[in-house]
Amino acid sequence: MDELPSQSRRNLDHPGQRDDLGSVPDGYTAGSDPLRSTWDSDVPALTDDQPANASKSAARAAREIIETVLLAAVIFFGVRMLVLNFKVDGLSMMPNLQNHELLLVNRNAYEDIDLNHLLNRLPFVDREGTWVIYRFDPPKRGDIIVFDPPNGDNKPYIKRVIGTAGETVEIHDGNVYVNGIKLDEPYIRAGITDCGTTDGKPDPCPTVVVPEGDVFVLGDNRRNSSDSRVFGPVPIDNIIGKAIVTYWPLEDVGRVPHYSYPDFTK
Fold first, then answer.
1. Mean pLDDT value across residues 10-31
2. What order do you get walking across the sheet with 175-178 strand by strand?
């Protein structure tokens, strides 16, 4: 009988070895194959930590959303403590403020502190009356303010300050006089201020001495305005704030037209 080739005998003598198709060379094992080791290292192992990592990512995203919402709320309420929006309703401030204009109002413009109230908290201190100081400025003639009217209307009004505490305001001949001095009002048409008419004749306007803690206000549209000619002086405590900026409509965006009366001597 012919002998098998030596290679075949070697395969028979070592039945654990495979043939040349996918054979492992002598001295190697599958575990020591460098190519297989590299392939194995490229495949990420599935571990029990993956669900925990996903939970951490979801918690981090939720925390960031909550932090963003809280920051937006703080900014919103912080701004609301300083500034309010106000819609002009009516024609009483024409031609300087139009119906339906949207304004920003500085609600802290006239913030004040009663020092006597603070001092009375000290032992053995009992001061009478008030000692008011303003963080900025008190209401000034020419300021355009938003306030709760003293006539009981539940809708805020917007008017211009004309007289302040201790001043005497008179209206006659179509003009306004403060302490006997005629006001120059270039922001309105001259000679239009009166207190109504009866049988075609102007009604006399009462002389008003503005009480301490009050202001006398008028609308710029003098013949279409309910103001201090009707309900009297306005307590400063009723003032909501000072109008500062028009932000709508876009063609009217700009500063609210206050006036300083540079030639007026108090």
1. 48
2. 181-182, 175-178, 168-172, 208-209
